[in-house]
Design goal:
The chain is an all-alpha fold. It contains 17 helices and two strands.
Length: 435
Amino acid sequence: MAIENPPQVEARAPRPAYRMYVMVLLFLVYAFNFLDRQIISILAIPIQDELGLSDRQLGLLGGIAFAVLYSTLGVPIAWLADRTNRVWIITGALTIWSGFTALCGFTQNFAQLFLSRVGVGIGEAGGVAPSYSLIADYFPPQSRARALAFYSLGIPVGSAFGVVAGAQIAGGAVSENLDWRAAFIIVGLAGIVLAPLFRLTVREPARGQLDTVKMDLAAKKPSFFAVIGKLYTKPTFWLLTFGASCSSMMGYGVFFWLPSFFARSFQLGIIETGWLFGGVLFVGGSLGIILGGVLGDLLGKKSLSAYARVPAIAFLITCPLYITGVLAPNPLMSVILFLVPTALGLAWIGPTLSAFQHLVPPSMRTTASSVFLLFNNLLGIGVGIYVLGELSTLLTPHLGDEALRWSIIIGSTLYLIAGGLFLIASKTIQKDWEG
């Protein structure tokens, strides 16, 4: 039976040029997502100096303050996105998180900054899962890993730009009259400017229009519990979810704490730290995401297990390389050594997100993605950033400025667990694949 599309839905296959335009806008929105999320890592140094915060409190600001509502609200928002206009939801989310980012610049103490970061998390809860679903309806199955990898370039690009821009503004390179507060305000207002452009030029596509297995009427609006019931029968989903969560605990933790590590262990200033860390994020992160997406699509044509096996191998190599980078004797060698594990640590994104789009029917994709994001972000951002900060705080009486170095070394072992879970998933993915 044919399904009528709701109003304002693009029911025909998108033209290549417009499809790429939409992808660029989604990428920009995602870049602002990580720009607003990551900028606090480079601003942690002046924030800590002015407000007198401990590593434990910084871990709360970077992790739990942002992650709790970001992770949990993502599920009901995604459930709504499976039934309503995803473009409107992304537009509203961008406006909210950008507004709260700007508000961070007006805070005067830990409590106010904590609440503002909670607001950023509330806004960003509505950005990612609906975007995954939009991409699946704009790109055919054989190119989704590459499309999702390109979209995910917003992670290193947004993070790197946030780190570099924040360092330049807070370090006085732009103007002596600007500080860390101005950095929050400027990047927040920039995101608000992008929101109306996204809403006015991106069309809502018909769900599942490019899939080989088409939706039927009964599958159009599944309940949340129906999605959970479906996921319950898919061991691959849970193996990939918890494997990715283990890697994200370290990945998000390192992204947040490396600027402080460079400053403490190598006595670098905020501007030098911004350029070095920004370079690691941009070069290493971009290469890793692109490589993972290309290999996922290329090897996935021959064997579906490649969607899990490629990230598994990358994770197992990442652990010793991160340890080597942290133990480097000088900042230049450390930066060079960090490039490879940063790349390998993000190679999972394209193939894994593509696999998620094929573990459930099109009508369940946004909600299923939000369940994955719930665990990945709650553990990765909320737990990972906080635990590294807590470890550093506990080790500081014994190790001083070297405490953060050893906190990162201990956390690196999480990549070994992630690799093991992905290897197990490579054995089950063929059975769980749909469409």
